[in-house]
Amino acid sequence: MSDLPRKAVTRTAKLAALPLSFAGRATWGLGKRIGGKSAEIVGRELQQRTAEQLFKVLGELKGGAMKFGQAMSVFESALPEEVAGPYRAALTKLQEAAPPMPTRTVHAVLAERLGEDWRELFTEFEDKPSAAASIGQVHRAVWHDGREVAVKVQYPGAGEALLADLNQLARFSKLLGPFIPGMDIKPLVQELRDRVSEELDYDLEAQAQREHAAEFADDPDVLVPDVVHQSDQVLVTEWMDGVPLSEVIEGGTEEQRDRAGQLLTRFLFSGPARTGLLHADPHPGNFRLVPDEEVGWRLGVLDFGTVDRLPGGLPETIGECLRMTLEGDAEGVYEALREEGFVKESIDLDPDEVLEYLLPVIEPVSADEFTFTRGWMRGQAARIADIRSPAHQLGKQLNLPPAYLLIHRVTLSTIGVLCQLGATVRMRDELEEWLPGFVVEEFEDAEEAEEAEGAEETEGAEDAAEAAEAVGAGESEPTEKPA
After folding, report:
1. Residue partners of 131: CB distance under 8 A and separation at least 6
2. What is the CA radius of gyration of the chain?
3. CA 79, CA 89: separation in Å to the nearest integer?
4. Nearest-angstrom CA–CA distance, 463 and 161
5. Chain-centre distance of CA 449, in angstroms?
6. Phi then psi for 69, rounded to 5 degrees?
7. 219-244: per-residue pLDDT in tens?
């Protein structure tokens, strides 16, 4: 029914061939070195060829393979430029589209899920998909009431394909590690696997999208299309035009990049506070810049298939640790991390070393505004990946509690997108407004109090000096006569 390879043996064979391809390329590299090429040049060529093969296969397979590729693609900023450059176009394709399934398959799914008379629900329906992603594709249409809509149709067999792919990817996750320095691939694959059932459930997705659409209905900065109709394997939402973030990354203006970065940051932190939900799939294909006469650009948000449910918003501990890190409170940060399980009871670390490890990571928060760059991202990745560095050794001893796993991935992914954009963002402004526990005003007040106290001490010292000088000159302050 579909061009999505459904037989487990077919998909497994394609994925299993990747490690063999890697080994073959390593042999090719050895031959080149024997032929006289330097190790550095051969290594770069080898990594380029391997990366191109990896993302080509992941894109063709859709399902869990493509989902994994999309998740990895946002960390492209962490790769050395000479490696990332040649296949950046392949990453962009993964973020935005995949080969479509046949029209007959689409019609069959619509007939099965909406009824044989499904065409009566639409006044227009475009057979050619406008977008195709990991588990479904989108068709532009006009609903029977005249509204332009996006019709998301799930690939038949998508669930089986997702699980099979992710199981296979988990088996050779170590081989994929070098593509993203400093990142452990296996937990990423496992976390994606845990979310499969939720992403396949269009009822849950429709519910999450309705809640966001209602909350952001009158928002000047964020636009979420409302749900028009939902059934098993078919989701109909309002259509949204705009410039895909992948295109902004590729050739957007500085104004577009900065605006997209600021709004993406705002949505990341305000979403949980306003809806109790965290949009957990922040790759560029899920966002648009939508023109607006009043504000210039709004951020259009798509695909609520994966969300983290946070009824109280983001954990307050995150905000408190950020604040204490900025204040230089090493003991306070260490105790908070230990209480939340980031530092296991069996582990003893130096609080000052933990603070030193965290400070570079929160650099974007320490300034009024921060320009995210691929160079900065690569520096962070290299610092953590270098097995000789203290940061690497300390990072290995920290633990990521399950409750923070998805939050951590979403935050890293968003930072990856900001670096792809090269956006200048006032991140601290967003944290102050939306992140519980991050009360920077108190920190600033404390600074002001210290400055005022210092000024008073200086004033007092100056007065005393003047008095001493006057006494030395034979003058004396008038004193009251006893009664």
Report:
1. 96, 97, 137, 138, 285
2. 28
3. 14
4. 80
5. 37
6. -60, -40
7. 999 999 999 999 989 999 999 999 99
Query: pTM of this prediction?
Result: 0.73
Nearest Cα residue to 64 out of 8, 2, 139, 103: 8
Question: Smallest Cα–Cα separation from 306: which of 456, 192, 426, 459?
Answer: 192
For the segment 248-306, what is each residue's pLDDT rounded down to a tens digit?
999 999 999 999 999 999 999 999 999 999 999 888 889 999 999 999 999 999 999 88
66 backbone φψ class: left, alpha, beta (φ>0; ψ -120 to 50): alpha
Phi, then psi, of 151 in degrees rounded to 5? -105, 110
Distances (CA, A) of 454 to 2, 157, 329, 448, 466: 73, 70, 21, 10, 18
Residue 377: name the closest of 366, 385, 387, 369 by CA.
385
Nearest of 66, 59, 61 to residue 4 by alpha carbon? 61
- Choose among 452, 427, 455, 424: nearest CA to 440: 427
Q: Which residues contact 55 (CB under 8 A, 6 or more apart)?
A: 69, 73, 87, 90, 91, 94
Q: Tokens 């950020």 map to which residue?
A: 322
Residue 160, pLDDT score: 73
Tell me which amino acid residue 218 is.
Answer: D
HEC assignment per residue over the chain: CCCCCCCHHHHHHHHHHHHHHHHHHHHHHHHHHHCCCCHHHHHHHHHHHHHHHHHHHHHHHCHHHHHHHHHHHCCHHHCCHHHHHHHHHHHHHHHHCCCCCCHHHHHHHHHHHHCCCHHHHEEEECCCCCEECCCEEEEEEEECCCCEEEEEEECCCHHHHHHHHHHHHHHCHHHHHHHCCCCCHHHHHHHHHHCHHHHHCHHHHHHHHHHHHHHCCCCCCEECCCEEEEECCEEEEECCCCEEHHHHHHHCCHHHHHHHHHHHHHHHHHHHHHHCEEECCCCHHHEEEEEECCCEEEEEECCCCCEEECCCCCCHHHHHHHHHHHHCCHHHHHHHHHHHCCCCCCCCCCHHHHHHHHCCCCHHHHCCCEECCHHHHHHHHHHHHCCCCHHHHHHHHCCCCHHHHHHHHHHHHHHHHHHHHCCEECHHHHHHHHCCCCCHHHHHHHHHHHHHHHHHHHHHHHHHHHHHHHHHCCCCCCCCCCC
